[in-house]
Amino acid sequence: MDMAITSNPISQITPKVTIFSSKNIEPTKRNSIRNISWLKRQFLGSNLSIKSKSKSSKFTPFRNPVKCSVSEVTETATEKKTQLVRRTDIRNIAIVAHVDHGKTTLVDAMLRQSKVFRDNQVMQERIMDSNDLERERGITILSKNTSITYHDTKINIIDTPGHSDFGGEVERVLNMVEGVLLVVDSVEGPMPQTRFVLKKALEFGHAVVVVVNKIDRPSARPDFVINSTFELFIELNASDEQCDFQVIYASGLRGKAGLSPENLSDDLGPLFETIVRCIPGPQIAKDGVLQMLATNIEYDEHKGRIAIGRLHAGTLRKGMDVKVCSSEDECRFARVSELFVYEKFFRVPTETVEAGDICAVCGVDNIQIGETIADKAEGKPLPAIRVEEPTVRMAFSINTSPFVGRAGKYVTSRNLRDRLYRELERNLAMKVEDGETSDTFIVSGRGTLHITILIENMRREGYEFMVGPPKVINKRVDDKLLEPYEVNVYKRNFL
């Protein structure tokens, strides 16, 4: 469900469905579409073939390597203009998709084939869904980091939620990557959350690789899915280079991928090769001033708050004195006590991290998401992370029933207030305000599921409270009353 505060008057809240056709495209845009190599590959066929030399070895080099369709001319011109260098030994990617399109299962297969685990080690399903609620509900709620190594290239992978209520998790991690794998179901095609995550990726200017997953299903219709995805690119005003995306067909459950639905390799080698060739390495200022944006926060009982993010410039060292800035005028000093990088499925301690890599920093007290860890003398803050506004709010208050204290141990307004405001430290898409009374708090989120997950987590932690009914958040702009609405893409998919 793609929900956003937009300029849609309440008197016209009925979603409009636009049926895509070539007549709706401007002539200049239509001419450019005819000439791109993507359409040539779709209608004229591809001369690429995937054949493994040996079934016993993983990641066998291809006889015909994957030729990425992304243009490199604009990229080179940008590098010369900004005088940045591009690292070739690292790829930072985010895997995005609609709910239940198989991205977490695909990550499992990528981890398994990259030898993250021993051959005799028992590996559970959906290993990235480590949260109890995630495993019970079968959905991803929190973004998580991992990494694999393909030949000499380190690939940092971020698994993201697939529900629009947790879109804030997707929006902030896009600051850490240079490309995304857009996973689309081979039967359903693009869905509402597919539109949302693709829109955000295109706004960041990221390279997109489309993975048509579950291609082994009997009812798979890859041609329809690719055409619908291409139409979605056009509707979102993607550039010609972005529309010329690379397509990979995969079965995450079987751990196979290929350049055509009829000719899958024995492993995910084509997918890894496509990531290396089509996703650019991070652009860095090799001799620049230290800058790292805290994109995620974790907590450890022994290490305290851990800031996770990508190092944009400079070099970060263990024991280094740094400056933590939330704006140009609000800065404080700290020291890095421990430094970690992601290798396989674990955080590994290191002494130095170079620009372009994703790392975890310990020792910075009270660091918040969106703050910048910068050089002590010349550091400047990076632009703050911005996410979509909440769409639904609910009232939280202490339990005033005669049965108070029977369902939990934290029952006072102070306990409730501390827990709700602590949630804001790692949940950028949520807002908390004081209510009309001292015992009431207004919690705003991206949707009812977003707030429901908070309620369930607090209940399991021992908090006892009451909640009111969800209410839609309206907004007045230029004397017009606006409300959130859903973008309907179902009818287009199933015509």
From TrEMBL:
CDD domains: BipA_III (cd16263), BipA_TypA_II (cd03691), TypA_BipA (cd01891)
Ranges in coiled-coil conformation: none
Organism, scientific name: Penstemon davidsonii
PANTHER family the record matches: TR-TYPE G DOMAIN-CONTAINING PROTEIN, TRANSLATION ELONGATION FACTOR-RELATED
Origin: domain of life: Eukaryota
Protein name per its UniProtKB record: Tr-type G domain-containing protein
Domain Tr-type G: 88-283
